[in-house]
């Protein structure tokens, strides 16, 4: 009976496909499907954000803020363990590094992504980040969105070309939904995922991002992801933004190389439970000493973006160190350096998350360190700079360097903050960071992982292989 029912469903679906091909042109069908994918990605973004917030609030809302929170030592490890067990025994598939997986799907698997990826990354990343894992939610939602687009296209029997476009619509819609940033979603797809896409495919991407953004606004409200208080841009600060661009380039190279090196070292531990224990212990200790490393860190960014300063009194045993003016930028510099370690511990130890969010966090801290250092050097002088402006521009600078996507960085930061009045420093800092980083590190953190394997066909694959392959790889 079930087999007959199955056959009937298949017949009905085939009739539906035949009807759509007769009634709709390929162009019209792609527009309708891109709209559907965008709505689905917007809903997925809402579910992910609310899940993370619910778990995070449930675990930390009762912290009194006056005692050292020793639960910082164990919460992240619990989240990593739950995610690892879910992936290992339920999914039985590797779902980490979502953006890299999407690139591989496009270049090596005909843009096909397994159906479980439409929801599995949501579950694993919600637990990982909600319990304090020091990673971002953006890569998991990109993987989820790309999987939605890919599987809708496969169900509709679309060609590889159209499946790739719909996959891109899913990724773009995911970015737009999670950040309420439609233009950044399109640019992210064009710069990072589908570099060779034709201009005729822009319309489906736009429809997908707009529909996802509308869904996000409907469920999450009208507020911007980062409300900030900015000072007007003044030309005499331009040299300092150049300094910030070079500083972001330096840390972009550090971020990319240290992340990949550390993840390789941790993953060389073959026993998954030993790997989890070592990573959880390291992550818990880092978060206990430096509480802003807990979770995505966006609460700390909101404070800095409004000209405030994160209070560590009663939050860390290192609070005694923070009573002198120069101790603040030094402490933040340690956070800047150690965020890469906390992120790598989370991802390599069994958690599921991405590097997108940590890149924004590190960029913001980099901007604050540069601005506070300038203000300490030029105290009570006309050369002082608005720290919140540098925090915002630093987010774009590091993103441009690490992800090698300057246009996405510029417009994402402008969209999520409303900081269009800082467009000149955003462009200047991002361009300098991107150019200087590319001179030293020619591949983004996403493409470097797979270029060595000769599997990157969407971003100058021949050059990638010739540049990165070692002699031993050819023997």
From TrEMBL:
Keywords: Chloride, Chloride channel, Ion channel, Ion transport, Membrane, Transmembrane, Transmembrane helix, Transport. SUPFAM superfamilies: Clc chloride channel. This is Chloride channel protein. GO terms for molecular function: chloride channel activity. It is found in: Membrane. Its main location: membrane. The keyword Membrane applies. It comes from the Bacteria. The chain crosses the membrane at residues 29-50, 70-91, 122-143, 163-190, 202-220, 240-256, 276-294, 329-348, 360-378, 390-414, 420-440. One of its GO terms (cellular component) is chloride channel complex. InterPro entries: Cl-channel_core, ClC, ClC-type_chloride_channel. It is a multi-pass membrane protein.
């Amino acid at each position: 009976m079930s087999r007959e029912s199955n056959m009937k469903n298949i017949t009905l679906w085939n009739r539906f496909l035949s009807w759509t091909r007769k009634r709709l042109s390929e162009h019209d069908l792609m527009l309708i499907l891109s709209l559907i994918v965008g709505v689905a990605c917007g809903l997925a973004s809402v579910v992910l954000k609310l899940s993370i917030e619910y778990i995070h609030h449930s675990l930390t809302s009762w912290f009194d803020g006056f005692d050292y929170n020793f639960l910082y030592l164990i919460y992240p490890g619990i989240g990593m363990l739950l995610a690892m067990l879910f992936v290992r025994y339920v999914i039985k598939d590797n779902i980490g590094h979502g953006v890299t997986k999407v690139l591989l799907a496009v270049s090596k698997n005909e843009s096909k992504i397994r159906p479980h990826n439409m929801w599995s990354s949501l579950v694993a990343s919600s637990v990982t980040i909600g319990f304090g894992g020091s990673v971002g939610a953006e890569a998991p939602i990109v993987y989820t969105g790309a999987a939605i687009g890919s599987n809708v296209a496969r169900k509709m029997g679309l060609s590889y070309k159209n499946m790739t476009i719909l996959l891109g619509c899913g990724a773009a819609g995911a970015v737009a939904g999670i950040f309420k940033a439609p233009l950044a979603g399109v640019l992210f797809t064009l710069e990072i995922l589908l570099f060779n896409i034709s201009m005729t495919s822009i319309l489906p991407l736009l429809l997908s991002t707009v529909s996802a953004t509308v869904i996000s606004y409907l469920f999450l409200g009208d507020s911007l992801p980062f409300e900030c208080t900015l000072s007007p841009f003044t030309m005499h600060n331009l040299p300092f933004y150049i300094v910030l661009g070079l500083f972001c380039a330096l840390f972009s190279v550090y971020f990319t190389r240290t992340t990949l090196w550390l993840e390789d070292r941790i993953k060389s531990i073959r026993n998954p439970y030993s790997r989890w224990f070592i990573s959880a212990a390291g992550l818990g200790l880092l978060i206990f000493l430096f509480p802003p490393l807990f979770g995505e860190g966006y609460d700390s960014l909101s404070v800095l973006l409004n000209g405030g300063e994160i209070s560590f009194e009663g939050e860390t045993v290192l609070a005694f160190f923070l009573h002198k003016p120069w101790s603040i930028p030094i402490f933040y510099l340690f956070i800047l350096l150690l965020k890469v370690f906390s992120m790598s511990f989370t991802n390599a130890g069994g958690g599921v998350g991405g590097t997108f969010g940590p890149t924004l966090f590190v960029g913001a801290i980099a901007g604050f360190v540069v601005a506070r250092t300038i203000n300490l050097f030029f105290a009570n002088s006309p050369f002082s700079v608005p720290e919140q402006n540098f925090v915002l521009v630093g987010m774009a600078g590091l993103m441009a360097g690490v992800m090698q996507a300057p246009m996405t960085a510029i417009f994402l930061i402008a969209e999520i903050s409303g900081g269009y009045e800082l467009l000149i420093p955003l462009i200047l800092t991002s361009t300098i960071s991107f150019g200087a980083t590319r001179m030293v590190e020619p591949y983004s953190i996403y493409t470097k992982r797979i270029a060595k394997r000769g599997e990157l066909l969407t971003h100058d694959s021949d050059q990638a292989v010739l540049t990165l392959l070692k002699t031993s790889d050819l023997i």
